[in-house]
Specification:
Length: 276
């Protein structure tokens, strides 16, 4: 049975009052829902101040978080599911290795990761988002930040993380996965590992990327090397620790540091380009 979530009255204000969320209002087309020119508090220029406020709060809260890893995954996974225990173990090992853990702050695999972070003695962070239905923060979050704009929240996930570990999830998880890959592919972030946890879950997607996107020239072979697939919490953490160590060494020396040689047999492998 999942732990009871903590109520979040501020973030649930819109859901309880039956109004539109801030993201809905921001993305609403002015041609379908024109705003009175005198109603400045509902105009896009006014929203800029709210957006600035969310960035300031996020930056201020997380500025001193230190080394951290963002963990994504489904909110629908129950505590008796093996994926829950894998996420909890992975987060605990990260915490023991000196990394704080950032999640979306909700239930399921987010709760599992926050739970593991607390067990490992690291800071457990939850970045909650306003949705049309009521939201709550899981009870294992030490530092909770509320966001009303998805793009502000997503900036925090990337800016304050050394890596992403992505467990099985739905559209939101896919969104974070491909945003991370796009940022890495375009050189916006570097030394940023993306670990996909769950071979059976991710293999079909990776096969499609290789057999369709790569085959048609929509991505390059090197792009597939951005993804690391594993079923082992220990291997996921090892990848993150080694990436971090290389990143620190490169900043200190100004020179590229080669990756450590992989063991002959390991569950964590970059995605293969050729046929299995």
């Amino acid at each position: 049975m999942s732990a009871p979530k903590q109520h979040n009255p501020s973030l649930n204000r819109t859901a309880r009052m039956g109004g539109a969320t801030e993201d809905e209002r921001l993305l609403e087309s002015p041609t379908t829902a024109p705003i009175s020119p005198t109603d400045f508090t509902h105009s896009d220029p006014w929203r800029v101040f709210r957006i600035m406020g969310e960035f300031v709060e996020g930056f201020d809260t997380l500025a001193n978080v230190g080394r951290a890893v963002t963990i994504f995954g489904s909110a629908r996974v129950k505590p008796d599911h093996p994926q829950y225990e894998d996420a909890r173990t992975t987060a605990r090992l990260l915490a023991e290795a000196g990394f704080s853990v950032i999640t979306g702050g909700g239930p399921g695999l987010m709760e599992a990761a926050n739970h593991g972070a607390r067990e490992g003695g690291a800071l457990s962070i939850g970045c909650n988002i306003e949705l049309p239905f009521e939201q709550g923060v899981n009870p294992y979050v030490d530092v909770a930040i509320n966001f009303r704009y998805f793009f502000v929240r997503k900036t925090m996930f990337v800016k304050y993380a050394e890596a992403f570990i992505i467990f099985p999830g739905g559209f939101g998880t896919m969104d974070e996965l491909f945003e991370a890959l796009t940022l890495i592919q375009t050189g916006k972030v570097s030394n940023f590992p993306v670990v996909l946890f769950g071979t059976d879950y991710w293999r079909g997607l990776l096969d499609w990327i290789r057999d369709t996107m790569l085959a048609e020239g929509k991505v390059s072979p090197d792009d597939l090397d951005l993804l690391i697939l594993t079923d082992s919490p220990e291997e996921a953490v090892r990848v993150v620790v080694e990436f971090h160590a290389r990143s620190v060494a490169e900043r200190l020396t100004g020179e590229k540091v080669p990756a450590a040689a992989e063991p002959e047999e390991t569950p964590a492998q970059p995605v293969k380009h050729d046929a299995e």
